[in-house]
Amino acid sequence: MRYIRNFILNNFTSNKVPYSAQIEVTLRCNCKCPFCSIFSLPKSYTQNEMSTEQIKYLIDQIAELGVNALSLTGGEPTLRHDLHELIFHMGVEHDFLNGIATNGYLMPKLFKENNIRGLDYILLSLDYPTAEMHDRMRGIKGIFNSVIKTIKLSNTYNIKPIISTVVMKNNLHLLRDMCELAENLSCSIELYPCDDIIRDFPNKKFQIKNISEIIPEIPIWAKLIKSLRNEYKNVLTDSISVDVIEKGGFGGFGDKKFYQKILRCHVAEAYLFIRHDGFIDYPCKIHPVKSFNALKHPIATIYNSIEVREIMRKHDSYSFCSHCRLGCAIMSSMPTRWKTVYAKYISAALNGQL
Fold first, then answer.
1. What is the CA radius of gyration of the chain?
2. Which domains does the chain have, with CATH numbers?
3. Which of 5, 19, 169, 326 can pair with 335 through a Cys bridge, CB separation 3.0 to 4.6 Å?
């Protein structure tokens, strides 16, 4: 009912409300993944983390705005000692559909030392079906076993575990094994391709060198995902996402001839992302055109400002949007259109894939 309320407001009135929000509680990370530039960021970019009270203050504002879903991410959010307190605030004191995105290494410790109340789901990074391969890729010995243990603990505590696999050239042939592993663990799985993410900062851009050597062939990925969806009910990567990515992603220029006409990017209006330092970037966290300090200005005021509304209207017409195929951008945009809402949520639920 809450999603229907926001859908009506966003499509038939001038009162827009984000469908989901995410708070980046830290930019610190204990992994060194070859497809991610976070570990290469200088300390000057990763400092100035918000305090517990500051994050709670923003959670309160997000709730007042009428957002349905809220998640915590990083970096690696389990590096914060107050994570269980933040989870309680968003999941118990506020009735969000909520979750965290984590590499899983410290999750068993978090379960052991804290009473985790109010958490709906855990999005766990897992790229290979064996400990040797996954530990080597993530750069931490024992991280595979920690993920497996976290999945089992999650099921015990009635928290939905979701495996998030970054699909690369060297694990493309292992995706069926990943789906089989997830099924045996009573776990859902999403399988999105690695992408060339350029992180824009005021004075510098950060990009992984030779990223093209890691990114899989998209047609091969798309064909395989469609096949796996028919074989396994636990695959969350939906057909709409596959089609959007396969046909070129977001963007495209000249006489409104975009790469695909299935879905435009609605991240600026549908998805609220708050950085570790309390700033909100528009249109998205990767390519900020405008940044606002949410610790100094009410989130509702920022979201409804003339500047942000103008950015919303441009959708994915910026030059940096060209061929963007980020899964988070696609999924955040889906609730804005009935056709994609049906394909992602209603149809998936009826088919047992949600």
1. 19
2. 18-350 (3.20.20.70)
3. 19
